[in-house]
Amino acid sequence: MSLFSRDKKRVTVEEAHQRTQGAHAPAVLLDVRERGEWDAGRAPGAVHLPLSALVAEAALPQAARGRMLVVICRSGNRSQQAVELLRARGADAVDVKGGMQQWAAAGYPVVGGSGNEGSVA
After folding, report:
1. Which of 6, 53, 60, 61 is deepest in the core (most CB within 10 A)?
2. CA proximity to 26, closest of 66, 65, 67, 64
3. Is the pLDDT of residue 1 over 50?
4. What is the pairing mode between strands 93-96 and 47-48?
5. Is residue 71 part of a domain?
6. Percentage of residues in the chain with pLDDT exceeding 70?
7. Is residue 120 part of a domain?
8. If you ran DSSP here, which 8-state letter would residue 106 be given?
9. How far apart, in whole angstroms, are the C-alpha atoms of residue 76 and residue 94?
């Protein structure tokens, strides 16, 4: 069973935060930005798989396999592409409107590579 309507392809950052944060979160936040962007700052608990790797048919990270996916990028463009690829593979996936820019603007935490406060690159 899905947390999202099969027709729904986009969620707000508030919905993304609600569904992906915490020890018993029902969905995984999948960040599809490139390594430099990921290293600069990401949402706590997010899992990384760059869109370029997804396009090259890379496997999902173990933590994301068989889970509902909330896909995020910088602004929401790449995550829309990623959702189409993931859904074609049979995944239950939605993207986050406004991406990490909107995540940070909403006041949600962004952490850097060493656990310090990060930034959206």
Report:
1. 60
2. 67
3. no
4. unpaired
5. yes
6. 94
7. no
8. T
9. 11
Our count of domains for the chain comes to 1
- The model's pTM is 0.92
pLDDT in tens, 52-84: 999 999 999 999 999 999 999 999 999 999 999
How many C-beta atoms lie closer than 10 Å to residue 67's C-beta? 18
Say if 20 falls within a structural domain.
Answer: yes
Q: What percent of the chain has pLDDT over 90?
A: 83
